[in-house]
UniProtKB/TrEMBL annotation:
Subcellular location field: Nucleus
GO biological process, one term: regulation of transcription by RNA polymerase II
Signal peptide stretch: none
Span list, region Disordered: 89-169
SMART domains: LisH
One annotated Gene Ontology cellular component of this protein: histone deacetylase complex
Extent of Basic and acidic residues compositional bias: 89-158
Keywords: Nucleus, Repeat, WD repeat
Gene: LOC103705249
Organism: Phoenix dactylifera (Date palm)
Record InterPro entries: Ebi-like (IPR045183), LisH (IPR006594)
Protein name in the entry: WD40 repeat-containing protein HOS15-like isoform X2
Length: 169
């Protein structure tokens, strides 16, 4: 059953007057009521709870925010079937979940790569240290051999001189 647009306009006007009264704007409420001729329309005030206009506006803002988050552009959620809205929300949640999983996988992969790089660098440091220690050891051995050779050469020279001195004397 289609609603008479006059009824919905009158209802909105009443809600505005009610809001003005609840907010303490009695003169504005009276002037608006007089201009809109609201007192000629039968409205059961007891059936409309306080704060109704604010609640309706808040719901409208939530719908608008939801539309923006779902990225629907010009399609309006208020004109959609509840099943369509639920499906849209479900799809959006799945999309967000998939994006988060992908991001988490990328973070895990990056962490693994950093750990692998750190292990490689640590291994390289150890190998470098081992190579340096081996070179130092080789240098010490060479130095020791050089000293032994020099000592042996010195001993041989003394022996030769002694032998020359004995044969020459």
């Amino acid at each position: 059953m289609a609603r008479n647009p006059m009824e919905s306009n009158d209802e909105l006007n009443y809600l505005v007057i009610r809001y003005l009264q609840e907010s303490g704007f009695t003169n504005a409420a009276f002037a608006f009521g007089h201009e809109s001729r609201i007192n000629r329309i039968p409205i059961e005030e007891d059936l409309i709870p306080p704060g109704t206009l604010v609640a309706i506006v808040q719901k409208g803002l939530l719908y608008t925010e939801l539309e923006e988050k779902l990225g629907n552009g010009n399609s309006y959620l208020m004109t959609k079937n509840i099943n369509e809205v639920q499906q849209m929300i479900k799809e959006k949640k799945e999309k967000i979940k998939n994006e988060q999983e992908k991001e988490n996988n990328n973070k895990r992969e990056s962490k693994r790569e950093r750990q692998d790089t750190d292990r490689e660098q640590e291994k390289d440091k150890k190998m470098k240290k081992v190579n340096e220690e081996e070179k130092e050891k080789e240098m010490q051995q060479q130095e020791h051999q050089d000293k032994d050779i020099a000592k042996n050469h010195g001993d041989m020279t003394k022996a030769k001189l002694s032998a020359d001195g004995v044969s020459g004397g």
